Amino acid sequence: MANIIYLSNVRLSFPSLVEARASVDTPGAVKKFSADLLMAPSHANLAQFMAEVNAVATAKWAEHAANVLQIIQSDRKLRCYGNGAEKIDKKTFKPYVGYEGNIYISANREEMPQMIMPDGSAVDSANTMAYQAMARKLYGGCYVNAAVRPWTQDNKHGRGIRCDLVAIQFYADGDAFGEGVVDAAPMFGAVAAPSLSAMSVPAAGAPVFPGFLGG
Known about the structure:
Helix content is 18%, strand content 32%. By secondary structure, the protein is an alpha+beta fold. It has a seven-stranded mixed sheet.
């Protein structure tokens, strides 16, 4: 598949896969499905990804590609990849958990990316409930396989390197970033059906909330 790079066993961060969201709170902002993919600098697929970045840049800007890429490299906002240390949490002023020492690739897409089942088959995108059920299993901190496609931006917003999120598949569990999903089940026990006599029923005509109603 032309230009598509397969990333095996990378860590998922900031997933927005259940529904598309806008990256900025501005009227008319384009909503996209998106995620960050984290990997070690030595990850085998990273070299393939960067080779493709150079290939699409050369195809777009020809003999100017090296100069354009140098400009893009100097400004994080112009590229979809970088050192994890660049991604700073505005609350702690430190890199986000899981980013430091790793490389990130930020990928997104206006259309739903393909959601791949464990057996390698794709979820029917027309089956919204099945798609969303699978997407909800992908949490920040888990490991995934993903297919991405780098592309060149050259328009009124400037020149840059962006990345399509083509497809994604759950690979393995990992420690959830942040608090993760809170399991409150241990606080509860089984509930027996109460008898009517055991239920507290207000007397006829009595206010339900006397303190609020002046009773």
